[in-house]
Amino acid sequence: MLKQSPVYERKAPTSYHHGNLQTALLNAGLDLLERRGCADLALREVAREVGVSPAAVYRHYASKEALLTAMAVEGFKRLNAEQIEPISNSVVTPVRFAEMGRAYVRFAVRNPALFRLMFSDQIDSSRDASLMFAIEPLTGNIEDAVARLAGPRFSSAMRRKAALRAWSLVHGLSMLMIDGQLRIAHSEIDRMIEAVVDPNHALAI
């Protein structure tokens, strides 16, 4: 007589005991976003990744939109930190201004799904103060760099115009690259960025 094979039951997720659960959920969401895309991201899957029950996720993120918003906030924080680093403790020169643009494009290329989410209509910055606060430095950093680079010869209106031009250049290049419209080898990325991110163009008012 054949012995019956034992039945293995999948264990329910256990309580999360290590570190900050909210941060762990956020990081798991960011990882899933890049692997699966926004459409296939579900809170239950995030819970499985971390090893907790779905109920534990809802205690920190009441909905998928709440998690997506938190992920976008984190994305803007990381982008702002990388973008400001070239000019954080030094005089703004044309070379360092261009490096800000390169940092922007490199961030997009490394995090394409997150970058798309940050600027998508799936999140509403007008309804979340933390998201609005995270977005503000994006143009502020560029405008501040323009002011330091151009000096008193630029009025506030001219600084805003130059900052918008610089942002448009790097954002447009970023979208073209992550959407596959510019099919270039990784070894050519810096050369392409160098060709577009020219401070003389941004300051040509």
From TrEMBL:
It comes from Sphingosinicella soli. Keywords: DNA-binding, Transcription, Transcription regulation. This is AcrR family transcriptional regulator. The keyword Zinc-finger does not apply. SUPFAM superfamilies: Homeodomain-like, Tetracyclin repressor-like, C-terminal domain. GO terms for molecular function: DNA-binding transcription factor activity; transcription cis-regulatory region binding. It comes from the Bacteria. It holds the Pfam family TetR_C_33. Residues 42-61 bind DNA. InterPro entries: Homeodomain-like_sf, HTH-type_TetR-like_transc_reg, HTH_TetR, MT1864/Rv1816-like_C, Tet_transcr_reg_TetR-rel_C_sf. PROSITE patterns: HTH_TETR_2. Residues 19-79 form the HTH tetR-type domain.
